[in-house]
């Protein structure tokens, strides 16, 4: 079988490229001195961690606000996208192609342009510097990803089982919650997970819409990345990865749990 | 409910389903258009309502703008082309190995989850003057000293910026194609092989054409993203030329409010370029659906 060795080599190389930087940053977070040209750090310290959790007192609040905003964005964009996907997959309606085109726009027109343009509008609407404004802006940016995923999953799932349930006497609400949603669950979770990530790492949009009043983790972390203090920057980096990975595994766990329950249900 | 009532309800259902998306997309378009209008000098909140092309002309007359536009287009073209090539190889390699979910999580999901700003930190930790790579090269005797490695921050070639985008977007392109590739390999892979086609040939004649649409879409997304993103070129880019979004934000922040119009003219040019990309994306999407 040709190419297997090359494939192995490439994947191994790729994994090194992904994991080595993570490891280096994790080491830097606990390093106090690493003079040139040493290959290993010379002394370690907890300065980065102390700075993170003690000196910057509002870290807990920042994290809570960030995770809260991103979870809200994940929920909102997934539900909205699932509805849009259903319309795109199962219905014919006037203006459908125009609608489809418009959902693609936030993919391709940069968030920076949107952010600078919408700032005045949000100020006049009283949405600037509010958590709600940030959630709204993030949801707009996350939506195209969620709609793409949901359209694929909705088309793949079809409506047969839902219709069968209806014919067998289930009401529309029951058919939706007991048949269609479990069927779409893997898609719903991956749309939510991608929306969460998109929101959690948003810097520029949060800066302009939140005006520095709504402090998210990506916002607080940024000045440290621009400064030269690598220990503190790395400590922030490690915490960012820990929080994101934590949420990712939560989604994976949910998927495993409910997806396995689903397959028992629907295999015939 | 009467038959007629049900029919009306059925006709209204799709509009009810798309309503929330329409509202969100309208906010997006309103924001973008509002910005673009400011570029034409229309700023009602300042009492200015007269249409002018002055700021656009000013933009194209300024050497720093044209240099920035060239720089951004170059960074995006290089990053997205290399990301597509790398993404194809990664996706094919993972498919070839029937990679487990865990392997895919590390190879694809972790890069997808990592913020671009963090990837900047990765690249700096590895490649800056005192980073790990120059240290290793020095230890191997390949470079002379601390300044001998080309600078990753502020270099006019922007190689640090490209590296950040590749770290993020190669896995993104793989993410966009891996489901199709796995599907193809399940369905046709065996057949092609038993019919005597070499693995490489069946890849180029069967798998790749089937991925074409997904690849064009991924290319456009990566291009538009790297073209319009602020953080990475702000942190790693050269002082001159600045990337377009960095230049636009600099003018946007200028206390002289007239510079805001200039910033918005720059944004308007970005919108124009990206709208072309969006139309191409949509055409590809339509073709895929017809198949």
UniProtKB/TrEMBL annotation, chain B:
It is a multi-pass membrane protein. It is found in: Cell membrane; Membrane. The chain crosses the membrane at residues 12-33, 71-94, 106-129, 165-185, 261-285. Pfam families: BPD_transp_1 (PF00528). Keywords: Membrane, Transmembrane, Transmembrane helix, Transport. InterPro entries: MetI-like, MetI-like_sf, Sugar_ABC_transporter. Gene3D superfamilies: MetI-like. It comes from the Bacteria. Its main location: membrane. The keyword Transmembrane applies. Residues 69-281 form the ABC transmembrane type-1 domain. Belongs to the binding-protein-dependent transport system permease family. This is ABC transporter permease. The gene is potB.
